[in-house]
Amino acid sequence: MRDQRPRRGEQLLAQAKEQGVELVGPNGLLNQLTKNVLETALDAEMAEHLGYDKHDPASRGSGNSRNGSRSKTVFTEIGPVEIEVPRDTNSDFDPVIVKKRQRRSTGAAGQPASTRSSCH
User: Fold this and answer.
1) Which of 32, 68, 105, 118 has the fewest beta carbons under 10 Å from its own?
2) Contact present, 28 and 80 (Cβ < 8 Å)
3) CB of 39 within 8 A of CB of 31?
4) pLDDT computed for residue 84 by the predictor
5) Separation CA 74–CA 110 (nearest Å)
6) Strand partners, 85
7) Which one-letter DSSP state was computed for residue 111?
8) Which residues lie below 8 Å from residue 36, measured CB to CB, with a gap of 6+?
9) Predicted pLDDT at 109
10) Can you give the pLDDT at residue 114?
């Protein structure tokens, strides 16, 4: 069976080309993918921090809940990426994928080098 990753990459490139989306640049495909991956990881970290998923009825009366998000620019290997970082009402959410006050990020899909597993 053929690995699906190259096929998905080909599909994304074809779709971007059809829509006139550049590969790199502020509105480029790589920027959009990096933004999506980082925000998805941050949302998952918030769910783990709070102990429930977004819109889960278990959040009622929990004492801490989501409280919107704030914009942040992270400088990655592909250029600056504007992301939305979720907030909680107790202000004790401490993300790992993009740490508080972190502006520079190097590594795969903008992931900070400190969170990547090392290759041997």
Assistant:
1) 118
2) no
3) no
4) 97
5) 8
6) 70
7) -
8) none
9) 45
10) 40
Q: Which of 69, 41, 65 is nearest to 55 (CA)?
A: 65
Residue 88's pLDDT is 95
With a CB cutoff of 8 Å and minimum separation 6, the contacts of 58 are 51, 52
Among the listed residues 83, 82, 85, 75, the one whose alpha carbon sits nearest the alpha carbon of residue 107 = 75
Residue whose entry in the numeric block shows the structure tokens 């989501």: 66
* Angstrom distance (rounded) from CA 96 to CA 105: 12
| Contacts for 92 with CB less than 8 Å, ≥ 6 apart | 64
pLDDT at 89: 94
The pLDDT, as a whole number, for residue 94 is 95
Residue with tokens 């290997």: 77
3-state secondary structure 29-66: HHHHHHHHHHHHHHHHHHHHHHCCCCCCHHHCCCCCCE
Phi, psi dihedrals of residue 54, rounded to the nearest 5°: -55, 135
42: left (phi over 0), alpha (psi -120 to 50) or beta: alpha
Residues of the chain with pLDDT under 70: 1-5, 106-120
